[in-house]
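About this split. The held-out portion is used to measure sequence recovery: a designer receives only the structure tokens and must propose an amino acid at every position. Recovery is the fraction of positions where the proposal matches the reference. Here is one held-out target exactly as it appears in the evaluation file.
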């Protein structure tokens, strides 16, 4: 059984990850829904994440895809996953999660940067700015953001005709692909770098 931690709001990455998991043949999936938290006055200078999504509530999404869901307060995630064991716990959408969750459970994250070089929310933009490799890393979360045991990391190719947004979208697609592939890498023992 796979748990996807996500926001209680329509969310593109959640929808894309769910779709890819289902198409890959995974059927035992549960959304673990945490409250949406708006960021005050957050306006990125350059938007780079795909935001077009199907405007469905969590209930509608789960009903249409025949997926179970449960709402859990963010500070109750550790207890929830202790009481409800899953084969894999993945982050589809969440801010910084509680330290006890990272200490007590293996939670898979996809990061749009080549760890440990590029950390933080805007890692993709900083990689461009600092002429660093453009890549994606899947890893288990730890008590510190964008650290923890690596599962996989891959470079994203850059083409002559690329624009900022075409490259950003390719990074996003690689994040989704690598999240789905992380399950197989973990189960086959290929996960440790």
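Reference sequence for scoring:
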């Amino acid at each position: 059984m796979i748990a996807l931690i996500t926001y209680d709001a329509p969310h593109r990455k959640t929808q894309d990850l769910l779709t890819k998991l289902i198409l890959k043949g995974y059927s035992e999936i549960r959304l673990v829904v945490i409250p949406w938290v708006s960021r005050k006055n957050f306006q990125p200078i350059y938007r780079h994440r795909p935001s077009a999504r199907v405007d469905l509530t969590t209930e509608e999404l789960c009903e249409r895809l025949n997926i179970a869901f449960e709402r859990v307060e963010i500070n109750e995630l550790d207890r929830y996953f202790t009481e409800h064991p899953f084969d894999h716990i993945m982050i589809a959408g969440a801010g910084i999660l509680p330290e006890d969750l990272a200490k007590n459970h293996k939670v898979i994250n996809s990061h749009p940067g080549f760890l440990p070089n590029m950390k933080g929310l805007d890692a993709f933009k900083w990689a461009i700015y600092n002429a660093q490799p453009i890549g994606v890393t899947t890893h288990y979360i730890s008590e510190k953001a964008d650290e923890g045991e690596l599962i996989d990391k891959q470079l994203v190719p850059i083409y002559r005709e690329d624009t900022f947004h075409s490259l950003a979208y390719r990074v996003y697609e690689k994040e989704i692909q690598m999240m789905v592939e992380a399950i197989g890498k973990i189960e086959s023992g290929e996960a440790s770098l």
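Annotator remark: The first helix runs from residue 12 to 23.
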